[in-house]
Amino acid sequence: MAKQLEIFVGKRKTAIARVRIANGSGKIVVNDRPAREYFNGRETILKGIAMPMIVTSTDDKIDVIAVIRGGGIHAQGDALRHGISRALLSRDAANRPSLKKNGFLTRDSREVERKKYGHKGARRSFQFSKR
Description:
This protein is of the alpha+beta class.
């Protein structure tokens, strides 16, 4: 019977990334596609995703398999980075200081404020007319 891999969750806005890590050569697979293909080769997102592994010197030792749902492409990248950081922390507790110092373990809790009735948006009102 195969050993069940533990799943770690990373979140940002409405994006949720479920991440599994395994020993390997540094491949990152997102929704059954290579990360470079999934994120359309956007270097800033790809660098952000790889940062937790670079900081902990595990970028060529582990493979990442992720399933991401919801949100936009940047929020998905941040959610994936958060999930990878949590997985690396679980793998080795000695990684905590470096991950914490770089802010990878902190969930960015900023969400879109809801629209209120009688308003055009969350805070924007309709133009006032005295007459």
